[in-house]
Amino acid sequence: MANTHSTYFTTHSDGGCPPARRRNPVRHRHGTRALIAESDCDHPPARRRNPVRHRHGTRALIAGVVLALFVSLVGPGANPVSAATATSRVVAIASTARGGGYWTLSSDGRVVAVGDAVHRGDLGGSVGNAMGLTPSPTYRGYWITTSDGRVSAFGDAGFHGDLSGVALSAPVVAMAATPSGAGYWLVASDGGVFSFGDARFHGSTGGMRLNRPVVGMSPTASGAGYWLVASDGGIFAFGDARFHGSTGGMRLDRPVIGMSTSGSGAGYLLVASDGGIFTFGSARFEGSLGGRGLTDISGVAPVPDGSGYFLARSGGQVIGFGRASAVAPAPSREADIASEIFTRVNLERTRRGLPELAWDPELATTAGAWSVQMSRTGFSHSNLTSVSASLATPHSYLGENIYWGWGTWADSDTAHSVLFESAPHREAMLETGYTTVGIGVYCDASGKLWVTEQFGRLDSQGSPAWSGPRSQSPRADVSSVANTSC
């Protein structure tokens, strides 16, 4: 007998009803009213069945969706932490003192605090050229820098001057603070260095002809020197900074985007936009993302004692290595599958001229936990009321897609394709009312793939204009995206 299991979507949605028409009982929670959406369409959701075409000698799978609507009325004093907006990109990351958390900075000036990181303030989406976030020596504050040389201080970080009103020959690309925190340096892409406060000028490449632009800067432990790095991995050492090697003479797959010093200060590591890591001197190699087809690594942040580091992707995903993996997911099949699905979703959105979704670390955590839970208790949706209550960042709207499959159906491409070919699941992926997404994946011992996609919109982003159902066409070209399976 041929192995031809009938394959269905089991949907728990209204199949694309406008969110404004959903009406549900209201629960009261700490002064917050939560509306849980159920269908008000003609057909009961539990009875809807959509057959899925068979392919690759099918294995049975089930997929489901719930499009839930939350309206939260949160008064003053709400946690100010915010995720990156859908139109901005993560441009920088910094670790906390013990590596138990991190901050990410988006190009619009917003800061996200994760783990033991404390949100000290940000630029509130008021700019479009934020490029650097540097913690103060106590890690109880930080500076945000823009490409035109403006510096904003938060927490116990002090303001010591900036380049406001100065006509620059090249944009500012990095900042480094002195050990005392009473000064800092800014460096431009032409290698020009600008000193403020107790930061001393030790030299620059401003008058040199560079093969490639400068992209990063790191100070020595004493503050009596610093290194500059160019996009080809060339290193320039000034003051008491020692040269430990470079990739300047190597052929790189992707350009270097930044650097950081080792815990002892006797070495440094370079990171390329594909996640490749190059270590020199005492810097420890804890792993990399090289060879995975990525091109959007936007920042590196070492754990201060040198025991690990975080890598940030421009979409907001953060990957941890060494000690940092206790906070951010380490590379794994599950992390790769989640990353690949995230990339596919955003390719479909940009193909239609829609803003990309920002990676939401909180929703990624709750989605991952739910995928594990489904593997133990069965295929069903999470309680989005409970999810909302667990989030430190207030979200006004949440939605969820879930999926499981095995055999030839347990890979990122199939999971995304099956969900995308279903109208209600596709609506969640392409809905312009959602601005963030967290994707959690679990591969169980039998090889089954469990996927949870949780979509969100932050309270701070106001009421959305819902876009509603969209056609499958035009489809994005996702052929260059890796396809990892359980």
Helix content, binned percent: 10-25%
How many strands, what sense, and barrel or not for the largest sheet?
7 strands, mixed
Radius of gyration from CA coordinates: 24 Å
* Extended strand count: 27
Helical run tally: 5
Strand content: 25-35%
What's the average pLDDT? 81
How far is it from the N-terminal to the C-terminal residue, by CA?
27 Å
Write a brief caption for the model.
This protein is mainly β. 12% of the residues lie in helices and 31% in strands. It has a seven-stranded mixed sheet with strand order 4-1-5-25-27-26-24.
Q: Mind sketching the topology for me?
A:
Layout lengths: L7 E3 L15 E4 L2 E4 L13 E3 L9 E6 L23 E6 L5 E6 L4 E5 L14 E6 L5 E6 L4 E5 L16 E6 L5 E6 L4 E5 L16 E6 L5 E6 L4 E5 L16 E6 L5 E6 L4 E5 L15 E6 L5 E6 L4 E5 L10 H19 L6 E2 L1 H17 L6 H7 L4 E11 L6 H9 L2 H8 L5 E8 L5 E10 L28
Parallel strand pairs: 1-5, 24-26
Antiparallel strand pairs: 1-4, 2-3, 5-25, 6-7, 7-8, 9-10, 10-11, 12-13, 13-14, 15-16, 16-17, 18-19, 19-20, 21-22, 22-23, 25-27, 26-27
Helix pairs in contact: 1-4
Q: Main traits of this protein?
A:
mainly beta, 486 residues, 2 domains, Pathogenesis-related Protein p14a, disordered N terminus, 31% strand, globular
What does this structure look like?
The protein is mainly β. The protein is built from 5 helices and 27 strands. The strands form 8 sheets. It has a 7-stranded mixed β-sheet. It has a 3-stranded antiparallel β-sheet with strand order 6-7-8, with no helix packed on it. A hairpin with a 5-residue loop joins strand 18 (256-261) and strand 19. It is globular. The chain starts with 7 loop residues before the first strand and ends in a 28-residue tail after the last strand.
